[in-house]
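Pasting as-is:
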Amino acid sequence: TLAPIFRAIGNDGFYVESGAFTGEQHSNTLVLEKRGWKGLLIEPAPNMLRKLKTKHRKAHLFEGALSPTGSREQVGFSGWSIEDRRWKKDKKKKVKDDAYKVVAEPLAPLLETLHQKTVDFWSLDIEGFE
């Protein structure tokens, strides 16, 4: 369990949640935010971003992805979502795929923009879709 580590850090921690989803559902950082931590939520999926913005999280939000190369670039996603039941049911069938591209940034410049030098907890959620 991570509870002893979080207690040692106290209420002044900083988190990054890559793959923030809706901001609440499947969130690994909401409990930290409620304890006073500051953070950065990263979410590339337009349908999840719409939901995330309605949650009024107190964290900074980057609408994009993390760069796999260390440089700013465009990356593509298939359009499938973990909450899209078609994926499980029809993944072998030819179903319309709502592919999209987003800006991907390296993490370091995002943290520099926030004047943040350390990350106490990083939740990297890939779900196999990236």
